[in-house]
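G., the chain you wanted modeled:
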Amino acid sequence: MASSRRSVALLGATGSIGTQTLDVLRHEPERFELCALSGGEQLSELAAIAREFSVPRVGVISEAHRATLADLLGPSVEIVVGDEGLRELASTCDVVVNAVLGFAGLPVTLAALAAGKRLALANKESLIAAAPLVEKVRRTPGAVILPVDSEHCAIHQCLASSPGETGYPDVRRLLLTASGGPFRGWSVEQLAGATKRDALQHPTWSMGAKITIDSSTLMNKGLEVLEASALFGIDTPRVDIVVHPQSIVHSMVEYVDGSLLAQLSSPDMRLPIAYCLGLPVRLDHGYGPIDFTQRVELTFEAPDRAAFPAIDLAYEAARVGGAAPAWLSAANEVAVAAFLKDELRWCDIVAVVAGVMDSYVANALDSLEDLVENDATARRLAHGILLP
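Predicted structure as tokens:
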């Protein structure tokens, strides 16, 4: 008898989303089967996961990593390499969790959708940079994107009461909530002295270094505006940001009749992960319940756009269109990487991105080759700004 379990490919297994996905899978061994995984440099950790879940196929970055992992796992596990290997893995399972970091996650997104798979997307950069390309393969029969980001997962749930027509005409606006990051309330003068240690102290979420820094600049929220527009077909002027430091309301949808729907839970990324894996079934894990017999404080405020100009950079990239969002994402990746290597001050991260965007010339984005070329151009310009 064929297995009734849903097969899962977890790509980016050793990162923050990957490890929390594994936790969800451990609770549901009879419902899900981990059939493929990939990781970065942490080969011992990757091998341990493959052994624990008896995973038959594993993806790695390089041939050298293949050799090392083969020694750890033996001949019973098939090991694939590079982007082509990721494409293979993303085409073979019922659900593909794309937790690959940054632009490198694009091959996973395109391959999973082209194969008609359910894509649980935690890699916002690939969608933001390649929205027109993703939209084409998204039309493949069976293909569906479910967002792992807590904000977009919340919106997905709130939109369940909408007819789902293109652009959701009965929706007035989407409201993405932001914790405000570690620098909420800091003045421009205070931010000039922000350190890496400060920036990595997120007040609410435990995340990887890159997204934590994006949260500190609020670039993550600007990127999420672009992601929400691409996911739900709602133009960016109808996507707003509101700071909500408690991170209990994960986002809201305002309808034209004045109704406002919100999704609430205590901060726990396993909840949206479980939602994406189990839909239409809600898994009985109880991640993030709220005890309303205790005092629950919910406060909201507008973001300080003068102190955090990354937000307006993202809206402008959306207005310009074409390859501008790809440039924004690529330049930000370069700037954040430089900051994490102590090559750039925190207050200069967004300045580098702004400098790259000042050089943008309207450019079409009709093919993967166009995207790769634009991504490389933006990165080259960002590195040029970083040079002394």
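Residues 6-147 form a domain with the Rossmann fold fold (CATH 3.40.50.720).

Shout if anything looks off.
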